[in-house]
Design a protein that fits this description.
Blueprint lengths: L8 H42 L8 H18 L1 H9 L8 E5 L6 E5 L12 H22 L3 H9 L4 E3 L2 H4 L13 H13 L2 H4 L2 E3 L4 E5 L2 E10 L2 H7 L4 E8 L5 E10 L11 H8 L9 E4 L5 E12 L3 E12 L5 E5 L13 H13 L4 H5 L6 E3 L4 E5 L2 E10 L5 E2 L1 E6 L5 E4 L3 E2 L1 H11 L6 E2 L3 E5 L2 E9 L5 E8 L6 E4 L2 H14 L10 E16 L2 E8 L5 E5 L14 E7 L7 E11 L2 H4 L10 E9 L2 E9 L2
Parallel strand pairs: 3-18, 27-29
Antiparallel strand pairs: 1-2, 4-6, 5-6, 6-7, 7-8, 9-10, 10-11, 11-12, 13-15, 14-15, 15-17, 16-19, 17-18, 20-22, 21-22, 22-23, 23-24, 25-26, 25-28, 26-27, 28-29, 30-31
Helix pairs in contact: 1-2, 2-4
């Protein structure tokens, strides 16, 4: 037909081929985009899980980079990877067939004119392995430059220790100020308190932080609540965690502190409200140490995240340069340099870091080789530590022992956990565990277990204070053990009784005891007297005529107290009450004289009557003296 253009078959084939090429090009482009997207998703999930600091001083970041490169290679160049491993060690050449000129038998062999085919290692794969090798080499070199053999003096100087005066630095606590709650007891008290709240116990549990802080001048342990499981989180995450728990370490008062606005940031949260993930995405380049829970002076909950810096080599000699404070309710955060951290922060340095630095300081006093061979002047921390509250700061206490001695200390150190100020006190004596064994030996028939000691100043003497627990974990008795002479022990059902027995034991050892200035002697006529049982011990409450003070005395103070009556004349030594207390404790009784009314008796009654007297208790049974003459 005129005007119609004829298309040949070859042209049709060319058009089809061009279409196929366009489709293949489009599919290839879509495949590349898809692989890149998959790689990005996998790398993000890896970062979301590992949470490394985007910082080459963080070893986890190097490991993250290596794994990320492997992900990219596997996802985007899978064909090259498969070919590489399938042809690894193989060389392909053409096989030719010949004939033996003598026998005519066929002979097989490689073509000598054809060069061996090299292994096909694609450029992306090759470059990826090169980068991985460089990163691994960097890690090896970075670790090598910080080894202790070349940097012993720098490890020693990570913590600077000065000598201190114990009697000046550690003031003597009054008996009603001694902390008696350890972490285990705080956990039991907290669990009991949460169990009282029926509306909470089914939805939340207690996070076992129990950070020790100073709050309003008293030592406390504080910890937040946590979601019981993912379902409970889903039901309650909108309002956040409603409260946290405080335990007064002196009075054992446990309080569930309710918040107007719940805590929305905590370790028990999921996704981006998890405190660790929130910190990482807010401060991607900072390296964080162990995050702790504290409250400020107004009771506002905060997460304290110490910021790590390395002072030796590339990533050795870990230390703290500052901290990020995160409001647990609002998520507001701010970074503070170490010297600008608020006063109410009590634990900027973790205990494990301090113990490690103290061990390095003691090990490298005279260089690295001396720590292995001569060991002159080498010392180490004992196997345990505790905390002291001094001047609104929390101090870590631990003993220091010679590296060759296991049963004795050469002294002890106190470390301020906010400033890292460290003082050494050269007081030779028993280790903490030796003191614990000594305290348990005093009550071995009761099979009580000793808690780790607390170091106190008792009459200007370093003294271990120990709680003694029964099999159920309940505190039943207390003990004071002299640091210098650990065979000197005073135990009692109350702290006052244990202290009196300790002082009496020291007197038996001809040690001079300073009498506190707040002890006074008084005499008078008893106006009223009553007895009650406190912690298994009989305690007598009485008043004197013309005196409004209420005096208290344990039965162990004097064996004549059970016969005290109104109208008797009494002379005794007592301790003046504290401002917040309403009673004065009797330390010793000098004399008791019967009043005229009690002395007059009927003619038919003997002048001295034999009456039964309860003198003590053993395993719940009263021991009775059949004949005891009442004065």
């Amino acid at each position: 037909m005129k005007g119609r253009k004829h298309v040949t078959i070859s042209e049709i084939i060319n058009i089809i081929h061009k279409g196929e090429k366009q489709i293949m090009k489009h599919n290839k482009f879509a495949s590349v985009i898809g692989r890149i997207f998959v790689s990005a998703i996998l790398i993000f999930l890896l970062f979301y899980t590992m949470l490394p600091a985007v910082n080459f001083h963080d070893q986890n970041f190097i490991i993250f980079l290596i794994i990320s490169i492997l992900i990219v290679l596997v996802v985007n160049f899978l064909t090259y990877v498969k070919n590489f491993f399938s042809t690894l060690g193989q060389r392909h050449r053409t096989v030719i067939v010949g004939h033996d000129p003598m026998t005519g038998a066929p002979i097989y062999g490689a073509n000598p004119d054809e060069p061996a085919e090299p292994i096909d290692l694609a450029k992306p794969l090759k470059y990826g392995f090169i980068v991985i090798a460089v990163l691994i080499g960097f890690m090896v070199v970075a670790s090598a430059v910080g080894i202790q053999f070349f940097n012993a003096s720098r490890y020693r100087d990570l913590i600077m220790i000065t000598d201190g005066d114990f009697t000046e630095d550690v003031s003597e606590l009054k008996m009603n100020q001694i902390p008696v709650v350890d972490k285990d007891t705080a956990s039991r008290l907290g669990s009991r308190k949460l169990g009282e709240m029926s509306e909470l116990v089914s939805q939340f549990e207690i996070q076992e932080n129990y950070t020790q802080i100073n709050y309003h001048g008293s030592p406390y342990r504080v910890t937040p609540l946590a979601y019981a499981d993912p379902v409970k989180w889903l039901l309650n995450q909108k309002n956040g965690l409603p409260a946290y728990i405080t335990v007064n370490m002196v009075t054992q008062d446990t309080e569930l502190v309710w918040l107007e606005s719940g805590m929305r940031y905590s370790p028990s949260e999921y996704f981006f409200r998890n405190i660790y993930r929130y910190l990482r995405f807010s401060y991607p380049t900072k390296m964080f140490d162990q995050v702790s829970f504290e409250i400020d002076d107004e009771g506002t909950p905060y997460w304290v995240a110490p910021v790590i810096t390395y002072r030796i080599g590339w990533w050795n000699g870990k230390d703290i340069s500052g901290a990020v404070l995160v409001n647990a309710c609002t998520g507001e955060s701010q970074y503070y340099a170490k010297e600008d951290v608020p006063q109410w922060i009590d634990q900027l340095y973790s205990s494990n870091m301090i113990i490690e630095q103290l061990d390095d300081n003691g090990r490298f006093q005279n260089g690295y080789l001396n720590s292995l061979f001569g060991q002159k002047g080498v010392r180490r921390t004992t196997y345990g530590y505790n905390y002291l509250a001094i001047n609104d700061d929390v101090y870590l206490y631990t003993g220091m022992s010679s590296v060759t001695a296991d049963e004795s200390n050469i002294g002890f150190v106190l470390v301020n956990l906010r400033t890292k100020e460290t003082r050494f006190y050269p007081v030779p004596g028993a280790t903490e565990y030796s003191a614990m064994d000594s305290a348990q030996g005093q009550v071995q028939h009761l099979k009580y277990t000793a808690t780790f000691p607390l170091l106190l100043n008792i009459s200007d003497r370093p003294t271990y204070f120990i709680s003694l627990k029964d099999a159920a974990g309940l505190v039943k008795m207390y003990a004071f053990v002299d640091v210098a002479q650990y065979q000197i022990v005073g135990t009692g059902s109350t702290i006052d009784e244990a202290r009196r027995n300790y002082r009496a034991a020291l007197n038996l050892e001809d040690d001079t005891i300073a009498v506190p200035k707040d002890e006074k002697t008084v005499s008078g006529k008893v106006e009223a007297v009553s007895d009650v049982v406190v912690s298994g011990n009989t305690c007598y409450y009485f008043t004197l005529e013309g005196d409004e003070t209420v005096y208290t005395a344990l039965v162990t103070v004097s064996e004549r107290l059970p016969f005290l009556e109104a109208g008797d004349e009494i002379s005794f030594v007592y301790t003046e009450p504290e401002e917040e207390m309403t009673t004065a404790s009797v330390v010793s009784v000098e004399k008791i004289e019967k009043g005229q009314e009690t002395q007059s008796q009927p003619e038919s009654q003997p002048a001295a009557e034999l009456i039964p007297v309860v003198t003590g208790q053993a395993d719940g049974e009263e021991t009775e003296i059949e004949e005891s003459q009442a004065f």
